[in-house]
Design a protein that fits this description.
mainly alpha; 2 strands; globular; DNA_S_mod_dnd_assoc_4; DNA phosphorothioation-associated protein 4
Length: about 160
């Protein structure tokens, strides 16, 4: 099987990625680097935040083989983000030499944007799992918030 590429993480986000995982005795909410990166990419896409990587982390996490994303089914997220960004279904074609590189690049930049959001949201947190849960809750209710809080639904007559 041909090399499918590697997913890279910005050097300035490497510690956050490590802290978000439970591998190597960590207490983060995600089991693997791939899980944390996909979550960040989805968050970046939701907030339309795509940020260039700059300097790449060479160790922990070093560039991750794309196969680790494929075996978890995360290649679907990578592909969908590429289609949305390029507005071209042909980005999925394997016969084009640089399509895989473009898909990975888009995915990495959305993940980097998501990690920037997480850096702000998790700043000062002792327990990332708890803070992440609170953040996700606020995201859910923010989407349903119409600007007014109506106490009448809590009052029984």
């Amino acid at each position: 099987m041909a090399e499918t590429g590697r997913i890279r993480v910005a050097k300035d986000k490497a510690q956050l990625v490590k802290d978000l995982t439970s591998s190597d005795g960590g207490t983060g909410p995600f089991q693997t680097f791939a899980d944390a990166i996909v979550f960040a990419a989805a968050l970046g896409a939701k907030h339309k935040k795509r940020v260039p990587l700059g300097e790449i982390s060479k160790r922990e996490p070093s560039p991750i083989p794309q196969e680790q994303f494929i075996v978890r089914g995360y290649d679907t997220v990578i592909n969908l983000l590429a289609i949305v960004e390029t507005h071209d279904i042909k980005i999925l074609a394997f016969n084009e030499a640089n399509n895989n590189e473009i898909r990975n690049h888009v995915f990495e930049e959305y993940a980097n944007g998501g990690f920037e959001i997480l850096q702000v949201e998790l700043r000062g947190a002792v327990n990332y799992s708890e803070r992440l849960l609170l953040f996700l809750n606020s995201e859910i209710f923010q989407d349903n918030y119409d600007g007014e809080f109506d106490l009448s639904k809590f009052i029984s007559f």
